[in-house]
Amino acid sequence: MANQDDFFKKVVAHAKEYGFIFPSSEIYDGLAAVYDYGQLGVELKNNIKQYWWKAMVQMHENIVGLDSAIFMHPRIWKASGHVDAFNDPLIDNKDSKKRYRADVLIEDHIAKIEEKIEKECEKAHKRFGDAFDRQQFVTTNARVLEHQKKIDEIHERYADCMNRNDLDGLKQLILDLEIVCPISGTRNWTDVRQFNLMFAMRSGNVSDRTSQSDKMGSVIDDSDTLYLRPETAQGIFVNFLNVQKSGRMKIPFGIAQIGKAFRNEIVARQFIFRMREFEQMEMQFFVRPGTELEWFKHWKEERLQWHLALGIPADCYRYHDHEKLAHYANAATDIEFKFPFGFKELEGIHSRTDFDLSRHSEFSGKKLQYFDSELNESYTPYVIETSIGVDRTFLAIFSHSLKEETLEDGSTRVVLSLPAKLAPYKAAVLPLVKKDGLPEKAREIQHLLMPDMMVQYDEKDAIGRRYRRQDAIGTPFCITVDNDTLTDNAVTVRHRDTMQQERVSIDQLPAYLKAKL
Ligand code: ATP
Predict the structure, then answer these.
(1) 386: CA distance to ligand 1 center in Å?
(2) How far is CA 3 from CA 81, 116, 272, in A?
């Protein structure tokens, strides 16, 4: 498929056409950065959540689940630091009136220089063929070294401004780099301001629509302000003692939760990558102080393995260690994925020290400690967090799976080669013709399989078109019922990715499919 932008447009169009994702409130012209999951989207999304829950909760005897409320006591967000520090630096272009994240403008500028390095590498690769040694090239080629030097200099200034919260410095950097607004093409920028990402509403009149929308996007800090949670993690911290005591949990142990989170993102133009309402899968792992960096390493590796187990190639993932650590962290890394618009964060793994529990102790006046009977002492546990967006995982898997293939006969097919365990429908049962008792036999097979998996029945159009429809929604197996089925009690199973066909006896079919899934 053509270039990145075109491909991304195809991803968005395919998601809509086949009932995976619709823009929210579409008949009212939509609501920016909010999306609805359609009949197939909800299946894929549920399967992703189940796959995570199984791996994190069911397969770990020392990790348990939680489902805490979205609304929480307002002081929680004071304690967590979100009221004071959950900000992004924003900047407006005075000509186009478009708003940007100042940090993203700078990061995009760096990405453009990185692209130049990539182009130099590609050119050299073509020139030297198999003898091309990338490592040697990027450490010796003069043009690459010059680009890299520029990147390092920008990085240094940028990290320094972010660490010192120097908004004027950020603006100066944008001016010095001569970054222009992609819409107006001008450098007519406002000053950089901090923007709090939490959606807020007055607790006294949560149902009052007027005051609710008044609060959207504004920065407020009153003690009677309720917030829509910007992350699920705090629900876990404030339940730490409840779970530990009622579950008789021994350190090290984890609490996992899947749930909605809300952020008033300044710029949200990347489909479900950056939404204002989204879902997170988070796990907080409580450990002895001093062991946190070992556990950080453990979870960093284990989470990457979870991704790789989906069968997506390893070169689609990379770690990005943080240079600027959040106020609560002593180590942090992202697992980035090669999205259609480049490598971007998919999951964060953070060593959060004892920051959260200590702050909640301080703000609530309740002691949030653990008595370690082996050490015979009480302490505030340290925490390793793994935090991944459901929607970003959806986008990663969906966009990677969407392919346009040219077949041997020159025709093309669009196939969504989803990992079979995540596919909305596992099988489609297709009678070859709509007569001779084949539909009845096909319905029988559908009902045989339904208790174990999602199965679709389709009798409309020629068999080839039906295969294409199933390819486009990612169904791994098509089961064709033909005239021979009535005598040999067997069906043809067609595999989505290879398009190969096998004859399988109906008695064996449920076990055959379950083994493949
Ligand atoms: P970014 O730098 O991309 O804004 P973040 O560092 O703020 O992300 P975290 O606070 O670490 O993100 O949140 C954990 C995970 O939640 C992210 O890795 C991402 O998968 C998901 N996530 C965060 N914000 C959004 C959003 N606006 N829309 C969809 N998913 C999100």
Answers:
(1) 12
(2) 41, 17, 20
